[in-house]
Amino acid sequence: MGQNTEKKSNEKMIISANQPYFFPFPGFFYKAHLSDVFVILDNVQFPRGTTWITRNRFKNNQGTLWMTVPVKKKGLGLQNINAVRICHDGRWAKKHLDSLKSAYARAPYYKDHLSFVEGLFLSRFDKLIDLNLKIIRYLMKHLRIDTKVVLLSELGIQARGDQLLIEICRKLGAPRFLAQSAAGKYLDADRFKAAGIRLTDFKPPSLVYPQLWGDFIPNLSALDLVFNCGPKAHDILTAG
Length: 240
Prior knowledge:
Layout: E1 14-18, H1 26-34, E2 37-40, E3 55-60, E4 63-68, H2 92-104, H3 110-122, H4 128-142, E5 148-151, H5 161-172, E6 176-180, H6 189-194, E7 198-202, H7 222-229, H8 233-238
Parallel strand pairs: 1-2, 1-6, 2-5, 6-7
Antiparallel strand pairs: 3-4
């Protein structure tokens, strides 16, 4: 929520939740902006297939630049997100850092965030969750989003699916749960209603802002927005 906005009473409190993505896209932060409490789903099952938790998109002179963090899976079976460990074999971290430097060296606000990016990729995080939370908190700060962030693992809730989201709302005393409209078809509105929780949806805004390297590419990592727009990134994001 905006820094000068008075927080809502419990009767109007809005909760939203999301898995801890790697360098999330602006819609992730827009959802947090619309919420009073943003819950990071850190101890749910790590997806088996490709996932935004380990990869995201940036932009260079060739177009879309994908970056993926390698993680340890072999022989570990099903893991919760907060148990997943980063694989430090090879030179992927230096490669990612060099790619970002090459892609964004001409961005207007590149130097403002260079020390963070360098420190991030030169550090050897053991767990993926620690890397992703470091990124999320940094981008929230520079997008000026002061919504309270809570980890699911801190709430002591044992549930799955819709019931997990309902129990989160109950635990935090919130009567409203916010979900992206595209996810609505996966949620049982009647179940939320029966629990006394109002299910509300939203559509992330289609942001357009100055970018390097030719035609605009939507829904890149929010780092692209911050590199290119700096202090104006907040207004661009929240205008949606």
